[in-house]
Amino acid sequence: MDLSTVPLPSGKHTIGKLFDFEAGHQLPSLAPDHKCSRQHGHSYVVEVILTAPVLADPGFVTDFGDLVPFKKFLDTEFDHRNLHEVMPCEPTSERLAHFLAGWFIQNVEPGIAGRLIAVRVRETGRSWARFDIGDR
Ligand SMILES: Nc1nc2c(c(=O)[nH]1)N=C([C@H](O)[C@H](O)COP(=O)(O)OP(=O)(O)OP(=O)(O)O)CN2
Ligand SMILES: [Zn+2]
Question: What does UniProt list as catalytic (predicted)?
Answer without folding.
Answer: 36 (proton acceptor), 80 (charge relay system), 123 (charge relay system)
